[in-house]
Amino acid sequence: MKIAIFADVHSNLLGLQAVLADIRQRGIDTIYCLGDLVGYGPRPNEVIDLLRQENIPTVMGNYDDAIGHMRFICGCDYKDEQAMKLGERSILWTKEHTSEENKAWLRQLPERLEFNAGGLKFLLVHGSPRQLNEYLFENTPEKVLNQFLTENHCDVLVCGHTHLPYHKQVAEGHVINVGSAGKPKHGNANVGYALLDVAEGNLTVEFIQVPYDFEQTAREIEEVGLPREFAQIIRTGKA
């Protein structure tokens, strides 16, 4: 069974379209999204509309929660005061440019999805099983990752939020971060997702990078009045 999982689209419609086009031509059985559909980018409504149209099972991200519930902050971990001010501008702009219907749809998203495939139990979340906005980096202590796997009775924990892909096998199972399909931080402008191949208890993971017209997205960010810093991240894949 082949499963495609992506996350952190962040209102980048062109990035999402490129990822979905790549998935379709690979003959994937199932597709999941790990949230953060909105924020930072220029097309929140179009991204949500496409996910709804495609009927892709989606978990709630911290940004989806913030926009859906009209919160003042998104729960992001800002590195300094300037980054916090930019984040506040993103929240304000996105709340103003996301329809009430789509905010209501964001509010009803589940915080986790679970399924069984190939003899393995999967748990899908945005940040961690504990919090929407908790970062599970590749260097997160294995003790913590093992605890999440055992407490949640799963063999494979799949998350997003960090925008940095990795697959880590620990004593109690697998932890996978799928990277970002709209605001990559892996060092280049390509968007990405994870392709999981499951068979008889065995799991292989491939991280797919997909080129797209990132310059168009960067120009749209600037044209709608969002901070130019967001356009620079789109152009470079560095935050």
Automatic annotation (TrEMBL):
Highest taxon of the lineage: Bacteria
Domain Calcineurin-like phosphoesterase: residue ranges: 1-200
Molecular function (Gene Ontology), one example: phosphatase activity
Pfam families noted in UniProt: Metallophos_2
Cofactor(s) this protein requires: a divalent metal cation
Gene3D superfamilies reported in the protein's UniProt record: 3.60.21.10
UniProt-listed InterPro entries: Ap4A_hydrolase, Calcineurin-like_PHP_lpxH, Metallo-depent_PP-like, Pesterase_MJ0912, Phosphodiesterase_MJ0936/Vps29
Keyword field contains Metal-binding: yes
EC top class named in words: hydrolase
Protein keywords: Metal-binding
GO cellular component, one term: cytoplasm
EC number: 3.1.4.-
Entries under PANTHER family matching the protein: BLL5683 PROTEIN (PTHR42850:SF2), METALLOPHOSPHOESTERASE (PTHR42850)
UniProt family annotation: Belongs to the metallophosphoesterase superfamily. YfcE family.
Protein name (record): Phosphoesterase
